[in-house]
Amino acid sequence: MAVYTDITEDDLKWFLTEYDVGTLLSYKGIAEGVENSNFLLHTSREPLILTLYEKRVEKGDLPFFLGLMQHLASRGLSCPLPLPRKDGALLGNLSGRPAALISFLEGMWLRKPEARHCREVGKALAAMHVAGEGFAIKRPNALSLEGWQGLWEKSEARADEVEPGLQDEIRAELDFLGSHWPKDLPDGVIHADLFPDNVFFLGDELSGLIDFYFACNDLLAYDVSICLNAWCFEKDGAYNITRGMALLEGYQSVRPLDAAEIAALPTLSRGSALRFFLTRLYDWLTTPAGALVTKKDPIEYLRKLRFHRQIASSAEYGLNA
Amino acid sequence: MAVYTDITEDDLKWFLTEYDVGTLLSYKGIAEGVENSNFLLHTSREPLILTLYEKRVEKGDLPFFLGLMQHLASRGLSCPLPLPRKDGALLGNLSGRPAALISFLEGMWLRKPEARHCREVGKALAAMHVAGEGFAIKRPNALSLEGWQGLWEKSEARADEVEPGLQDEIRAELDFLGSHWPKDLPDGVIHADLFPDNVFFLGDELSGLIDFYFACNDLLAYDVSICLNAWCFEKDGAYNITRGMALLEGYQSVRPLDAAEIAALPTLSRGSALRFFLTRLYDWLTTPAGALVTKKDPIEYLRKLRFHRQIASSAEYGLNA
């Protein structure tokens, strides 16, 4: 949750004169997203989301994020659509921050997703991968091999505070992934953060994907492995093969994985588990005690990493050959 | 801002089966209020506010707060209206908290109110005082003389950390107010917290009052003095007599103050300045450093208190006899 920047009604009204959106009726800061300030606007026409981009977001990346949403929506994916200003720009300025107006997507994220929801998520992820084709702007993944190395260097010295032996284990993992990371798999635009809170449902129907602020160019199957980690484990750390099977079936019903992608899935899953472990570990070690931010336990992703390490074949994820 | 309790879609849907509100389309935690968790719901019919009452709110007070909003709305005041459940109750239970569904009020609060807005606030406050007549439930003001004494005892020992000499000054003030506090003024239901963020406007028109969770029975003119403190001072601490005059004129156009109320206004204003000084002082001294809560500077209200202390006659507030 986050509202970092307050805005005055006058500034907001001035900002809105650049858009064709009717009359402003109300705006509320909403507890959504951790990187930006988000407001839900009611207007005489339709509800809108106003996003103010805070410092953690690289300004130079905004054309990629906003352009991508526009590209995906124009190709039929249900996702928030940035509204162009009267001058055609997707980005304005409000309270000293880059700011965008974005369509409001009805729907709710599922705190307890089941297999049938995982199937829909798989389908939507594949649909996004297909819809992302032809998007002109590129953004390399800052949180891949090299980025992990950098993150690890900031946490390494204190890692054994979280669990004794962690220093050696993670260093070995980084070495393994450095020498076994797949090359030449199909790549494209990936979401890279498709956790349950970024997928909306209305009833059992998936109503849209949100939060493209980690999106980048990378291996498509890596995005699948992120979803396996995010959607297919129980609270107690056990892999739920029913959900995994549903997610993979849903994905393949839209975009079948090739043999090399399937073979690489355990390694990719180790990588994505490590990626979330490392950001959580860093936050865990650097967030001051008493801060009102929920620290996510890095151990959850350490357990997932260890699970993937003992996988002998992708069939164990529930993949039907 | 505050969302203390998260709710699952399933629990919320179950909760909503007790109401006749159409289909749930979305819900967002909103950054509003400091005592409770608030969610903005979109349904197939109309937007609603869902409030979960957190520990700081006394459960026994909820029938007063919810009943009051219903009473005021039924008498024409624009304020949030609690929706009755199918069984007639105004209060349900969600995620282990007492919870209510309340109508959503369009409008925005003004970060920089001007005199014309203060006039509307004065009118609305008086209208609330009139509309509150006949409300059957009573709630004494926990933050009057006795409550101040209790708050002060918790902060007294460390008060000089904020400003040297404060211990003696506040003790003398409490003594003065204890012996000069007016009796026998008209009383009734007061809002007791009508700050700018609790008054919504659409353009220059006041669209409603919100947040009745400090409402109680007390002297009506005390509520006026709270508004003078909340609306009629500049950021630099100077009293803005134009705004004060407008607020008092607006109030008296609906409910004229009697001679005793007018005479008591400086003393009442000292009391209300002290009341907000004391709660802010307490929060200031007890909120841990590093907590992501904005501490409100108690000094602001100390300055206001000192201003009121040197007022010789209520005419200095801009009161036209």
Automatic annotation (TrEMBL), chains A, B:
Domain Aminoglycoside phosphotransferase, first and last residues per copy:
27-257
> What keywords were assigned to this record?
Amino-acid biosynthesis, ATP-binding, Kinase, Nucleotide-binding, Threonine biosynthesis, Transferase
Which GO molecular function terms does the record list? homoserine kinase activity
**Keyword flag Repeat:** no
- Alphabetical list of InterPro entries matching this protein: Aminoglycoside_PTrfase (IPR002575), Homoserine_kinase_II (IPR005280), Kinase-like_dom_sf (IPR011009), Pseudomonas-type_ThrB (IPR050249)
Q: Which CDD domains match?
A: HomoserineK_II (cd05153)
List the Pfam families: APH
Residue ranges the record marks as coiled coil: none
Q: What's the catalysed reaction?
A: L-homoserine + ATP = O-phospho-L-homoserine + ADP + H(+)
Pathway connected to this protein: Amino-acid biosynthesis; L-threonine biosynthesis; L-threonine from L-aspartate: step 4/5
Q: What class of enzyme is it?
A: transferase
Q: What is its EC number?
A: 2.7.1.39
HAMAP family, per database record:
Homoser_kinase_2
Q: Which family does it belong to?
A: Belongs to the pseudomonas-type ThrB family.
NCBIfam families to which the protein is assigned, alphabetical: PRK05231.1, thrB_alt
The protein here is known as Homoserine kinase
Name the source organism.
Rhizobium mayense
Read off the lineage from the record.
Bacteria, Pseudomonadati, Pseudomonadota, Alphaproteobacteria, Hyphomicrobiales
Name of the coding gene: thrB
